[in-house]
Amino acid sequence: MKTELTTLAKRTLLATALSWMCSAASAHELTLDECLEGSEFIKHAAMSRDYGIKREDFLERMHADIMAIQQFPPQLRWFVQDDADAALLTGAAERVFDSPREPGAHESDFLQTCSAQVAQSADTGVAAADAAADAPPPSASDR
Q: Which of 4, 53, 101, 114 has the most CB atoms less than 10 A away?
């Protein structure tokens, strides 16, 4: 009985540690609403460019805003809940100035890229759920 309790305690501790590491390492999964809002932001960045704002001024302000936003807990932030979100948005804003096109074209590109990430996250989640469902139940010797 004591050996079984020790084994159970070790497994519980290991499961807790693995769960914590997985949640700490996992990236924020974007939603379609966030993609739509991000694409509007990128469209407005292109419109700002067309109205004369300089690349350095826009990106400097954007970086300052991201730093300010990151002072809040991730769940209270819009879009830049992690570094990957910030990189996606910043990269798209840089392209607005580095490869100028019509605002709608930048908006569409961002929406397509972001939506692809949403779909990839959904596919990964479905695959993980399928794998868990296909896993055999624990045997008596595992308990």
A: 114
